[in-house]
Design goal:
single chain; mainly alpha; 434 Repressor (Amino-terminal Domain); 5 helices; globular
């Protein structure tokens, strides 16, 4: 699931694999392998991608469909 999300997030922001690879300080073909599921993405790189796209790790991992960084009770403007 996260493979689809990585590409979707990148394309939605009009970014190229090369740009993401530069951001992560890795080779473009390495990032391509991550996005295509040929290699597992190390957790530190997933954290960087989470920050870049401003989504939570659970969303990247396909554990939730809610991309928000904070749970609903902690989002700005939400009442407790």
């Amino acid at each position: 699931m996260y493979l689809y999300r990585l590409k979707e997030l990148r394309v939605d922001r009009d970014l190229r694999q090369r740009e993401i690879a530069q951001y992560l300080n890795i080779a473009q073909n390495t990032y391509c392998n991550y996005e295509n599921g040929n290699r597992d993405i190390p957790l530190p790189l997933l954290i960087q991608l989470s920050r870049l796209y401003q989504v939570n790790l659970d969303y990247l991992a396909g554990q939730t469909d809610d991309p928000h960084l904070l749970p609903p009770s902690r989002r700005k403007g939400d009442e407790r």
